[in-house]
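Why do we bother with a discrete structure alphabet at all? Because it lets us treat a fold like text: something you can write down, compare, and reason about line by line. To make this less abstract, here is a complete entry for DUF1573 domain-containing protein. Read it the way you would read a sentence in a foreign language you are learning: slowly, and without expecting to understand everything at once.
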Amino acid sequence: MKRLATLVLTIVFSAGLAWAQEKTADGPVITFEESSKDFGDITQGDKVENVFTFENTGNAPLIISNVAATCGCTVPSWPKEPIAPGKKGEIKVSFNSAGKMGKQNSVVRIYSNASAPIEKVSMISNVLPKGTR
């Protein structure tokens, strides 16, 4: 009897977990190829940029409503049109190290209608004074 109860509970739990995973898979899903780019050492005043490529791995159009950086030294640009399921898009981010020193982690937040409504990507660098490289 104990084994039967354990078996029934296992089946119910597994079915519930599968249903929950299926339910969360509905709608758009933003999946980045990479969520961070490390530039290593750069010289103060250098401008670096990266393109963060993503795919809508969900089953509905992905709409990015806003992309916001943590400071004015980081400027993002993103697609304004919906990204269809299975299609790719790009978020371009540039970082200006003028006036910065030391380790920098520029975080960009992506706001969308995806199942996880806020995603983050980051650009990391170590800004050295001019003339030290």
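What the structure line is telling us, in plain words: Residues 2-24 form the longest helix (23 residues). The CA atoms of residues 66 and 111 lie 5 Å apart.
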